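URGENT: need a sanity check before tomorrow's submission.

F., can you look over the (+)-neomenthol dehydrogenase record below? I want to be sure the sequence and structure line up before it goes out.
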Amino acid sequence: MAEAKLRYAVVSGANKGIGFETVKELASNGVKVMLTARDEKRGHEAIERLKEYGLSELVIFHQLDVTHSASIASLVHFVRTQFGKLDILVNNAGISGVNLDEMEGSIIKLEELTQTYELAEKCLTTNYYGAKKTTEAFLPLLQLSNSPRIVNVSSRGGLLKNIASEWAKGMFDDAENLTEERIDEVLKEFIKDFKQNSLENNGWPTFLAANRVSKAALNSYTRTVAKKHPNMCSNCVSWFCQKESSNFSMILNAHFEFKYAVVTGANKGIGFGMCKKLASSGIVVVLTARDKERGLKAVEKLKGFGLSDLLVFHQLDVDDPASVATLADFIKTQFGKLDILVNNAGVTGGKLLDADAFLRKRNGEQIEWNEVGYQTYELAEKCVETNFYGVARVTEALVPLLQLSTSPRIINISSRAGLLKNISNEWARTMLSEIENLTREKIDGVLKEFQKDYKEGSLEIKGWPAFASAYTMSKAALNAYTRIMAKKYPHFHINSVCPGFVKTDMNNNTGQLSIDEGAETPVMLALLPNSGPSGCFFYQGEASNCHRSKQRDRIWDMQAFVVLTARDEKRGIEAVEKLKEFGLSDQVVFHQLDVTDPKSIESLANFIKTHFGKLDILEKVANVDWRKITTQNYESAEAGIRTNYYGAKLMCEAFIPLLELSNSPRIVNVSSSMGKLEKIPNEWARGVLSNVESLTEEKVDEVLNNFLKDFKEGSLETKGWPHIFSAYVVSKAALTAYTRILAKKYPSFCINAVCPGFVKTDLNYNTGYISVDEGAESVVRLALLPDGGKFL
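C-alpha cells as predicted:
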C-alpha cells in the first residue's frame, strides 16, 4: 500500500476493551492507527497482542492522558511530524465515575458501587473535557484530510430521557442555540448539586450520575462540532447497542443528515418490527396506523428500546385519499424529504375459521378450504382496495418527497402467494408477466376482470385462485406495480418482498418466523447500497423476477448468473435441480470442476469465456473433508494443502483475466477462523505470514513446504506447528495471506477472505450451530460489496 494513500487514525484509551477492538478493526481495514493509553506499559502490551493478528506494521503506540494538555500536545506534535494529517479521531477514553477500579477482577455488585465527588469530578474531566480537548487539538490536522471523521464513544446512559432535570434537558436539547458555554453551564450546575448532595432534588440521575451527565454532554458537544465543521463527519456512538442481524450500533447524533422513513400498518406485526430495526439503525421513522390509539401504544412500546427520539406517530388510512394527503403534508413540513417508504398495510381478504386446519393444509394435508376459512365479495373488494390501490395511492403521494432524497427506497411488502405460478388464468398471467409492455392500465384491467368474475361466482371456471383469491391477486398486482415503478423511476430502488411465514394476527400466529426475523429482508432492502437491485421480488434475502430494461442494466448486473461447480458431476446436477424449487433455474448452470486439476480449471475458464465473455465474482469454497483431516496422516495433510490453498490459487490465476473484464470484480476466498495466526505457535511462520508489506507467494510456498517437511518427519509439535487439524489450520492461514497478496496486486478488485462460521455441513458431520443459509450470508455480502469495499 502506497504511503501517500494511507489513512491515519488516533484511538484514545485503546489498550483494552472497545478501544483495542476499534484499533484492530481499523488496522485490519488498512488504516495506520495510533493506539494510545495513559499507562505506557499496558499500551505496549496491547501492541504485542496485535502482532498476533499480523497488524504490527499498521499500529503504533503513543502515550496519552486526555486530562493532561501537555500529553495531548505531545501526541499532536508526533502525528503532525510523522504523518502530516489525521483522518480519523476516536475519542474512546473514559471512566465510570464510580469505584469500579477497586473491584477489578471480582464480581461487581450494584449495591457495592459508590460515587464520590472526587470520582464525579474526574469523570467529567475525562469523559467530556478530555474528549473536547483532544478534539480541539486535532482539528487542524483533521482539516487537512479529504475525509475527516470524529467518533465519540458515548453511552445510552447519556440519552436525555435519563435526566429528569427539565432545565438541563432543555439546554442540551435546544440544537439551534446549543453552545459549548451552555454545556459548561449544565456541568457546573451538576457538579455543584453533587457537592451539596442535592442530585435527586434537582432532577439529576442518582445512579452512575457523573457518567450519564458526562455522556449527555458529549452527545451535545458532538452536535456543536458537527454544526461548526460541516465538512467533517462527527458522530456519537453507543457501545452498549449490540449489533443486531445486519444492523449496526445505533448512531445517537448523526451529522444532521438524518434519513426519514414511513412504514404503513405499523402498530403491530412486521410493520412494528421494521420500525424497531430502522430506528435502531439511526433512521427517523414515522410509524403509521389506521387506529390512532393503537399507533400511539406502539410508539410507547418502542420507547422501551430507547428509540423515542427516532420515532413519531401519524395516523394513516391508506384507503382514504385525504388521510394520505395529510401524511404527505406532514412529512413535507416536518422533514422536507423522504428517504424510505415501506408499504406494509394490508388485509387478508377472508376470515380464518380454524388455525390448526390452516396449518395442516399448508403442510400438504388434504383439507377442504371451506374448513379453513371463508371469503366474500365484499372482503375481496376491500382486500384489492387496500393491498393494491392503497399502496399505489400512498406511493404516488410520496414520490415527490422521495425524489428529494439522494437514496430513495420503496419496499412493498408482498407474498409468495402472489407469484404468477399460483394463477391458472393464462390471460391474467400473460398480462402481468410481460415486463416490457406492462402498464398500470393493464394491471387495473386484470383486477377489474377478476372482481367481475368473483361477483358472478365464476372464479374457478375462469382460472382464478380458489382460496385467498383476492389476497393472491392483490399481491400479484403489487409485484407487477413494483416493476412498473422501478422502470419509471430508474434512480430509485423499488422492490417487493415476501417476509416469510411470520407469526402475526393475520394467520392467528401460526407462522414459523418471529417478527424480528420477518423484518430482516425488508430492512435489508431499505438500507440497500446505491449499487443494489431494483424492480425485484425478494424472498429469504434472495431476488427473483427482476425488471430488466435498457435503462436499468445495472439492476440485472446485480442478479448474478451463477456457475455452480462440483467435482462429482452427478451431485452437481442434483444441486442445480434442487435450486429449481426456488425458481432459480434460469440463473444457475452446472459445470464440472476439480480445483486440484489444472485441465479441469482450464475447461471451466474456457466455458465462461465462450458463454459470458467475462467473470464478475469468483467464490472459492472447495475444501478437503474434515473427516480426512482428523486422521492426521501425511497424505491427507498434503491433499488438504493442495485443495485448500493451491486449488484456490490455481482458480484465481486462471480467472483473473476474465475478472479484469468486469466493472466490479470480486474474489471471495472462504477461509476459517482456525486459520488465524494466533493458532500457529511457530514464530517464524507467523512472522512470515504477518509481514504484510513484504509478503509474497514464494514466502507462502516456503511456509507450506516447511510445514509438510516437518509433518513428514513427525516433528510438528517440536517445530511449533498446530497439532490438531494441522493442515487445515495452516492451509487457511496461507489462503488468508494469499488474499492479502492479491488485494495488493489488484487494487481495482475487491478481494476478501471470510470465515462463514461453524456451519452444519457434511465436513463436520453436521455438528455446526448455524444453518447453511446463515453461513452463506457473509460470503454473499462480500460478493455483492459496493465499489470501494475494503479488504477484510
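My own read: The longest helix spans residues 117-142. The chain is about 45% helix and 15% strand. If you see anything odd, call me.
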